[in-house]
């Protein structure tokens, strides 16, 4: 749908609602006042995003607890016929370090998501306050 078509549809819908409101008022209900912006829910919620960020942090924490690898040389000594040396330990250490680096990246992403969400909600809240102040000023005028 193009912008013009959507705009025409919205104008038609608004005119229909205004006509219905005026018919209700003329039927003895008296003049009706549109709902105040103070009463309107602008849908400024951060719960779903905050829940996702928290879930990411929990999953990352659980993964960090499970990303411990045993010392290859110590395990090799427990099993006869299996020999593991310093090279194996270096491999284990490198893999554990990589897993921790990836975990840190996930934690950074969750923190960035939370920071961006906080800023967006703050900006939206400020816009909502200005809208409400403007609506109050128009109602008083």
Topology of this structure?
Elements: H1 3-29, H2 47-66, H3 72-78, H4 86-140
Describe the structure.
The structure is a single chain. The chain is mainly α and 141 residues long. Helix content is 77%, strand content 0%. It contains 4 helices and no strands. The protein has helices at residues 3-29, 47-66, 72-78, 86-140. Helix 2 packs antiparallel against helix 4 (86-140). The chain is rod-shaped and about 95 Å long. The mean pLDDT is 76.
SS-based class: mainly alpha
**Form type:** rod-shaped
Biggest β-sheet strands, sense, barrel = none
Helical amount among residues, as a percent range? over 70%
Got a strand count?
A: 0
Strand residue percentage: under 5%
The secondary-structure element order is HHHH
Radius of gyration (Å): 30 Å
Discrete helix count: 4
Average of pLDDT: 76
How far from one another are the termini?
A: 37 Å
Provide the descriptors you would attach to this structure in a database record:
mainly alpha, 141 residues, single chain, 0% strand
Could you give a short description of this structure?
The protein is mainly α. Helices cover 77% and strands 0% of the residues. The chain is rod-shaped and about 95 Å long.
């Amino acid at each position: 749908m193009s912008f013009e078509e959507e705009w025409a549809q919205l104008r038609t819908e608004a005119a229909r609602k205004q006509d219905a409101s005026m018919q209700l008022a003329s039927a003895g209900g008296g003049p009706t006042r549109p709902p105040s912006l103070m009463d309107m829910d602008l849908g400024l919620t951060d719960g779903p995003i905050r829940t996702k960020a928290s879930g990411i942090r929990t999953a990352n924490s659980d993964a960090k607890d499970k990303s411990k690898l045993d010392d290859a040389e110590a395990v090799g000594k427990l099993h006869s016929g299996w020999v593991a040396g310093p090279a194996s330990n270096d491999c284990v250490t490198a893999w554990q370090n990589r897993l921790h680096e990836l975990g840190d990246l996930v934690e950074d992403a969750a923190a960035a998501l939370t920071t961006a969400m906080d800023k967006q909600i703050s900006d939206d809240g400020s816009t909502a306050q200005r809208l409400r102040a403007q609506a109050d000023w128009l109602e008083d005028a």
